[in-house]
Protein 1
Amino acid sequence: MKKVIYVVAMGALLIGTVACKDKASAKIVGENVETASVRDEGAKKVPVMQFDKTEHDFGTIENGTPQQTIFKFTNAGDGPLIITDAKSSCGCTIPEYPKNTPIAPGDSGELLVKFNGSGQNQVTKTITVTANTAKGSELLRIKAFVTPKDGAAISVPMKKG
């Protein structure tokens, strides 16, 4: 029985030695190397999102008065720009954008931001734009000074003491 195990083990060792004699470089397929080079070169092409402005001030508005502004942007990079998401810091602000639509290098687009005008006093909201840029996201801001509907100033009670 020991001889059988010894013969099987020696046979497996011999097969393993013969199979490993092939050189790894002989197994490289030239077409695959070329495809990988093209892929890697394409990965170096990164879009760059440039905005005409990153903040918009609506000024003084009356509470509940809807506002909107457009943030224009250009793809200043050398790869297609794709916006995958845009979210605001609050449900009162809604961004509209070309979701998952490739924007070629040099081309421009627009991101519309709608604000329902709610709040009081100084209000600032942020919009986070997620895209395939090197940074991965861009921040935009809107702000307004919101007054009550009747136009009266909002009084803040003072503490005694």
Protein 2
Amino acid sequence: MLEPGTFATYQLHVSLIGISPMIWRRLMVSEDSTIEDLHYILQIALGWSDDHLNRFIIHGKDYGVSHPGGIWFSDDPSDVRLADLPLREREKFLYEYDFSDRWCHQIRVEAIALSDHPLPAPVCLAGKRAAPPEDCGGPEAFDNTTP
């Protein structure tokens, strides 16, 4: 538990699994970011269109933003904040987007920084390579030699 007036910011390294050379982003997100927020942050950072089903697997539990006709999650993604999850530095979890193409993202908590003020908005600090186009068939079909 943080002391009052102290805010945590998570530095996350997001990489697509099965792609070489690596496609990745380094993000800074607030402890108050929800699962729903993180889903949309990833959609924007990677240039995805949010047209497909998704889920996070954190500590063996599925979380996600439901879509009509898709899977249902036991927790409301707008209620579960990163601060509610006992995430530690160097810990990894998964984000899967598009269950047909199976875009699996490894998310690693690189650092948890404490500050006396909250992060006003998520920030993409760095990254390499554009994400593959939607519906291109997944990692096996994507041309991994594209710079």
Protein 3
Amino acid sequence: MADKGTRPETMEETDVIDLLIAQHGMIRDLFDEVEQAPADRCGEAFTRLVRLLAVHETAEEEIVHPYARRKIDGGDAVIDDRLAEENQAKRLLSEMDQAGPNAADFFEKLAVLRAAVEAHARNEERYEFAQLRAHTSEAERRTLAVGIKAAEALAPTHPHPGTESAMKNVLVGTPVAMMERVRDVIRQVMGKKP
């Protein structure tokens, strides 16, 4: 799959909800790619999946969830539940990254991660996005989409000198470190202090 296929900031959707739902589809496609990749390509596919998950979840956490907290009925409870789901997936993703795609239980953990990520996406779409669409204007959703695309475009994706592993080269550290870098970029774009 070409890099553009995993670069959410290049997507055409202008409504934040449509954008995030389309990204959920990209994530499902990348899970398929990792599961079906030959052994020598699995690490590369997993790297793209980790990057997309890091960028997507961090953008939701920094831009969409805070907005939804204020705009939807029962926003605090809805978002707290989504954050708990995200944290569960992050822990598993970090374990998998540390062990690498050659670990004996990699595909077993990948199946657990996929189930958790897909359940989380369904819950977002049902409990958060549906209400967000109902309680926001088209202009608000377009503005949120622009913010997400700008932040995602600036997310680190290029190799850093001195990083030896191909997987680490793209991630530039653990998934958690990647998420922290994305978070910093998003906060800069949004004019917040890191």
